[in-house]
């Protein structure tokens, strides 16, 4: 919108973990927008020249740095912060790793692995992976949230009621996100930008990529949200579903085990039919396959499906 005050926050203005005592990097009025620079999820520990040998050396206290916090004038506990994702400025590089001890099948994939991606920043060409994998680019913010009311420093890894490391791949361009505010000024921060990810982020990493993001902020007074909600701008799968899906399932009384079984089935299928090494198939699923709860009512067993988009392979 013309005439609106526009701000920029550089990536040096960031923090590790959440703490409502962090000093704001910027103060804005509701209705204003901000361009954020971000750092990759390793905080610069992985770069284009890194190899799998660098993965176990990652200092986990430095992961998921976020840019901020931004103080929104007039924000009070009980209000909601409406964040509109205006646009992204992708860097053209990223990484996906299997980090030992992390991920849905950590017990089956104990060895470190790393793939460094180069992709077209305009998002028009898919990023290449392994034998013939073509992954469409769709940037989003992995970590986006406001400070929790509870004092002290809180790990960045778990998402919370105030948002944070939600890794929801549909919090992308055009989406409107509504976050419950717990402290005065809201104290908003963003980071952990991803160039692409499937629902589930199964191996624990997406295409981790430094990506600039433009956001607009509004306040909804007295919204009293229980948890974050969001509204997407349109179709969430048009970029990837044109050729349908290969689908595997896991069936049983435990959703976590069902998800693990559905994913294991897909890794086996990709290895057998398409020549991927199991760890490559695992990482490829993390960046483009979707886990879904297909049914959760037919006692005592639930069905979890793993959807792999066929256009990635064709
Ligand atoms: Zn990430």
Note down, in words, how this protein is organized:
With 314 residues, the protein is mainly beta. The chain folds into 2 domains: 7-231, Sandwich (Jelly Rolls), CATH 2.60.120.580; 245-312, Acetamidase/Formamidase-like domains (Endonuclease I-creI). The chain has 2 helices and 19 strands. It has helices at residues 255-274, 278-288; strands at residues 6-9, 14-15, 26-28, 33-36, 66-72, 80-90, 93-98, 113-118, 127-129, 133-135, 140-146, 163-164, 176-180, 188-194, 211-220, 229-231, 245-252, 290-295, 302-309. A 6-stranded mixed beta sheet has the order 1-4-15-6-13-16, with no helix packed on it. Strands 2, 3, 5, 11, 12 and 14 form a 6-stranded mixed beta sheet that branches. A hairpin with a 3-residue loop joins β9 and β10 (133-135). α1 (255-274) packs across α2. The longest helix is centred in the last third of the chain and has 20 residues, at 255-274. The N and C termini lie far apart (41 Å). The model has no long low-confidence stretch (mean pLDDT 96). The structure holds zinc ion. The site of zinc ion (ZN) has 6 residues, from β14.
């Amino acid at each position: 919108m013309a005439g609106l005050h526009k701000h920029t926050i550089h990536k040096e203005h960031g923090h590790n973990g959440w703490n409502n005592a962090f000093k704001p990097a910027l103060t804005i009025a509701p209705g204003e927008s901000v361009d954020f620079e971000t750092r990759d999820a390793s905080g610069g520990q992985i770069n284009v020249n890194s190899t799998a040998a660098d993965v176990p050396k990652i200092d986990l206290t430095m992961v998921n740095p976020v840019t901020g916090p931004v103080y929104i004038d007039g924000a009070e506990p009980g209000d909601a912060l409406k964040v509109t994702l205006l646009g992204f400025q992708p860097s053209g590089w990223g990484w996906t790793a299997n980090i030992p001890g992390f991920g849905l099948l950590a017990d089956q994939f104990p060895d470190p692995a790393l793939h460094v991606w180069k992709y077209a920043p305009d998002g028009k060409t898919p990023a290449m992976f392994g034998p013939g994998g073509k992954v469409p680019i769709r940037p989003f913010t992995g970590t986006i949230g406001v400070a929790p009311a509870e004092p002290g420093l809180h790990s960045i890894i778990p998402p919370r009621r105030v948002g944070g490391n939600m890794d929801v791949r549909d919090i992308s361009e055009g989406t409107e996100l509504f976050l419950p505010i717990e402290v005065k000024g809201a104290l908003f921060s963003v980071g952990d930008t991803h160039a692409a990810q499937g629902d589930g982020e199964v191996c624990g990493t997406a295409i981790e990529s430094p990506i600039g993001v433009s956001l607009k902020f509004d306040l909804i007074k007295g919204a009293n949200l229980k948890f974050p909600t969001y509204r997407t701008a349109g179709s969430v799968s048009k970029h990837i579903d044109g050729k349908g899906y290969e689908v595997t399932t896991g069936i049983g009384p435990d959703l976590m085990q069902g998800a693990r079984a559905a994913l294991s089935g897909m890794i086996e299928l990709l290895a057998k039919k398409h020549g991927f090494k199991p760890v490559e198939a695992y990482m490829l699923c993390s960046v483009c396959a979707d886990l879904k709860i297909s049914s959760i009512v037919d006692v005592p067993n639930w069905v979890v499906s793993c959807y792999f988009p066929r256009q990635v392979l064709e």
